[in-house]
Amino acid sequence: MAHTKSHNNNLATNSTTQGAWSEQEIARLCELYNKFPHQWAELARRFDTRNPKQCRDK
């Protein structure tokens, strides 16, 4: 299935937080990463406010 630019944009912005990570978010990301290393989709699901790309890039 081909992904369109608008589809990819929706994945990145659909109910996610934009901008800088708070100290609390970073601490939570580190904690979750220790439980689920390199499982970006799983991390994002548990985060609710960040998508897999944001988690990976942080």
TrEMBL record:
**CDD domains (UniProt xref):** SANT (cd00167)
Task: Extract the ranges annotated as region (Disordered).
Answer: 1-20
| HTH myb-type domain span | 13-58
Composition bias of kind Polar residues appears in 7-20
A single Pfam family it belongs to is: Myb_DNA-binding
Q: Identify the InterPro entries for this entry.
A: Homeodomain-like_sf, Myb_dom, SANT/Myb
Q: Which PROSITE patterns match?
A: HTH_MYB, MYB_LIKE
For the Myb-like domain, which residue ranges apply? 13-58
Q: Which SUPFAM superfamilies match?
A: Homeodomain-like
- The protein, known as: 1968_t:CDS:1
Query: What species was this sequence derived from?
Result: Ambispora gerdemannii
